[in-house]
C-alpha cells in the first residue's frame, strides 16, 4: 500500500506540472505567433532556412539509407543521386534563403495549381462522385491560389507567414485553455 500512496502523490504532482507546462507552452506559442505576424520578413527568412536545414537532414538520411540498403550503392543509385541533389538544394536554401524561398514558393504554387486542376477534372469527369461540388470548388480555389502564388511569390510568402503565425496563436490559445481546464479538474 505505501507504493500506491506514493503513486497518487506523484500523480498529483504530474498534474500540477502538466497544467503549468501547457499554459507556459501556450503563452510561448501566442508570443511567437504574434512575432511571426509582426515581423513577416524575418520570420519568412528563418522559416526558409529551417526548411533548408530539414532538407539537408533528410538528404543525409536518404544517403545513409542508400548506402545501407541490401543492394548497396548500385541497388539504390537513384536514391543516392536524389540525396546528393537534395543536399545541395538544402545548402543553397540555407545560404540564400530569399531566392530559394521564392523558388520553394513557386514550386508550391505549381503543385497547388496541378492539384486543383486534378480535383476539377475529377469533379467534372466522375458523374457519380459524392460531393462533386466540393471537389470542383476545391479545384477552382486551388487553381486560383496556385496561379497567384506562382505569379506573385511575395503573396505566397505573406500567406505562408500569416498561416504559420495564426496556427501558432490558435495553438497557444488552445494550450492555455487546456492548461487551465486541467488545473480546475485537479482542484475539484
Structural features, described:
- It is a single chain.
- With 188 residues, the chain is mainly alpha-helical.
- 92% of the residues lie in helices and 0% in strands.
- Helix 2 (40-68) runs antiparallel to helix 4 (77-95) and helix 2 (40-68) packs across helix 7.
- The longest helix has 37 residues, at 2-38.
- It is extended.
- The mean pLDDT is 85.
State the main characteristics:
188 residues; mainly alpha; 7 helices; 92% helix; 0% strand; extended
Secondary-structure blueprint:
Layout: H1 2-38, H2 40-68, H3 72-75, H4 77-95, H5 97-125, H6 132-151, H7 153-187
Short description:
92% of the residues lie in helices and 0% in strands. The protein has helices spanning 2-38, 40-68, 72-75, 77-95, 97-125, 132-151, 153-187.
Low-confidence stretches: none
Distance linking N and C termini: 24 Å
Query: Helicity range of the residues?
Result: over 70%
Order of helices and strands: HHHHHHH
Quote the average pLDDT: 85
Strand content: under 5%
* Broad structural category: mainly alpha
> For the report, how would you describe the main beta sheet?
none
Shape: extended
Query: Helical stretch count?
Result: 7
Radius of gyration: 23 Å
